[in-house]
Amino acid sequence: MALCSSMRAHLALLLCFCLLLSGVNGRSRKLYIVYLGDVKHGHPNDVIASHHDMLTTVLGSKEETLDSIIHNYKHGFSGFAAMLTEDQAKQLAELTEVISIEPSRSYTTMTTRSWDFLGLNHQTPSELLQRSNYGEDVIIGVIDTGIWPESRSFSDEGYGPVPSRWKGVCQVGEGWGSNNCSRKIIGARFYSAGVAEEELKIDYLSPRDANGHGTHTASTAAGSVVDAASFHGLGAGAARGGAPRARIAVYKAVWGSGRGAGAANTATLLAAIDDAIHDGVDVLSLSLASEENSLVPCTPFRRDRRRGQSLYYYGKNSTGSSFKPLAFGGLCTADSLNGTNVRGQVVLCASADSFPVALENVLNAGGSGLIFAEYTKHIIDATGDCGGIACVLVDLTTALQIGKYMVDASLSSSPVAMIEPARTITGKETLAPTIAAFSSRGPSIQYPEVIKPDIAAPGASILAAMKDAYIFGSGTSMATPHVSGIVALLKALHPNWSPAALKSAIMTTASVTDERDMPILAQGLPRKIADPFDYGAGHINPNRAADPGLIYDIDPNDYNKFFGCSFKKSVRCNATMLPGYHLNLPSISIPDLRQPITVSRTVTNVGEADAVYHAAIESPAGVKIDIEPSVLAFNATNKVNTFQVKLSPLWRLQGDYTFGSLTWYSGQKTVRIPIAVRMTIYDSYADVA
């Protein structure tokens, strides 16, 4: 039992990670983002000059200003990134022109069948694919680690001229010439200012992708159709992006080699976004996460071709020449394996280190196979190059089962195991979609009055381009380009819709049940039925989103009434700032319901001119909801209606979130939004006696 106890102790290390934050004194410099609001000058050079003048009033000289400024933001908004001491940042914050100033944050990077699963099969095109012409000439800007232009996914064969509205550039650099841009990759930029030297020296100083992450995400969103793509024979089929006829604009703002481990900061990302606005992109795709959280929830999808590796281990009566002795390697650090005899054995590792580190240590120790335990891994994953030995990734539950077998087997014989090569299986044995354990979850700490995430999309086992080959990838990074590709299709179909309208169409048509009409499940500890903090409005349904019936639209200026002040220090705050639940979002979140609250929503009819919609309410537990009016009538002259939602607590208590929904229905058309409510008595749980 000591072996099993030891293993459990080691596996527990994977359940907790610590983030150490270091402070800085008032004299050391770090990167700050200064936000000044809307652009108030006609020419970008005038905007830059105003930034320099402002900073010079604090720093004292033009020379210091030029040395301090890293980026100027002059297209989508006015602001700049600069190296400042804490004292200098405080002085800037006192200026009336400054709306907010915050330290730059760090960010990291975190498909043959997924598009078929979403109903976008290119061989039997869906209505959305046909009507949008596969996203023809929509420009997707990918802010990531760059791109590998030689990949077949970025072939420009059959493409017409670059759209005349494009105003971007093809920035040359190391390993990248003007010839690397094409009618598919129509522009490319890179941003190295303010990036640590250790990240730059292991990467191409150009838009070329040494990491691989940007290539994978770009091909998922907008890759051209590539027949017979596979990963060593797994998942064989046609790889393509969601909008395979869309154009790609590359903005390399994430640096560092090693797939899935790129590094970025707020300053470079904002510079890329600012340029993308100027260049004329239609959709921006950012597969990034801050240190606190990731951005888009992921779902393992039912794969008509499902991949995996078979892992066998059996007891005293078992025979077979392919089985190898099975050893427990603990954390599988170099020190823990030093002096142990694992040569020729399959080693079980329960390590907080990355898989490549554990693999290197097992190889150095002479192991013949590796079973690597990862936190709540939903699928038994296939890996890439394992240095010539067999390897497989498993979740903690599977690892503990293996550990129990090892304890039982050791009582009468030696435990053995065999890792069988991965193979492709057809069928529908898997419940799908489900919310992956590694997925982003809510609620939002910064803005609890807005339900986050918005939507869930496929993000597990996505086959996409990696340099000249194709590999599987899983993570929120893989879910994001699925949404980007779908938005590109919708933008091609509805070019005049606002971003808020496109978002509304996606959210109000999402699915909350799986293929068998069962509630979507959320993986993790414990597994449970998913709720809006797991999947937002639900799992994305692109064909329904093409014709949503009603949309919840938002004027861009309305956001200033709600989010003009950061939750961190902001100097000029609107004293009449409204709670976020009053924004016309396709969701409602009330984080502190103490007495009845009424919120207003406005919907626009984008379906049949003459339509009547009726309200259907699923109230959160402990909450009474009233809708006025409960019937909305539309015609050719009346396309917009406003209604009130009154939420009343049924009890006086300090509770947790409960969930419900509001659905407008007209014939076969349904328009659903999620509702999250938490009843409270006190400002915080610390106030509870």
TrEMBL record:
**Record-annotated Subtilisin-like protease fibronectin type-III domain positions:** 583-677
Sorted alphabetically, which keywords does the UniProt record give?
Hydrolase, Protease, Serine protease, Signal
Q: Does the keyword Protease apply?
A: yes
Catalytic positions? D144, H213, S477
Example GO molecular function term? serine-type endopeptidase activity
What processes in GO biological process is this protein linked to? proteolysis
Organism of provenance:
Miscanthus lutarioriparius
InterPro entries in the cross-refs: Peptidase_S8/S53_dom, Peptidase_S8/S53_dom_sf, Peptidase_S8_Ser-AS, Peptidase_S8_subtilisin-rel, S8pro/Inhibitor_I9, S8pro/Inhibitor_I9_sf, SBT, Subtilisin-like_FN3
**Protein known as:** Uncharacterized protein
Inhibitor I9 domain spans which residues? 32-109
One Pfam annotation reads fn3_6
> Domain Peptidase S8/S53: where?
135-513
Look up the signal peptide feature and give its range. Answer: 1-26
The similarity annotation says: Belongs to the peptidase S8 family.
- The reply on keyword Signal is yes
Which top-level group of life is the source organism from?
Answer: Eukaryota
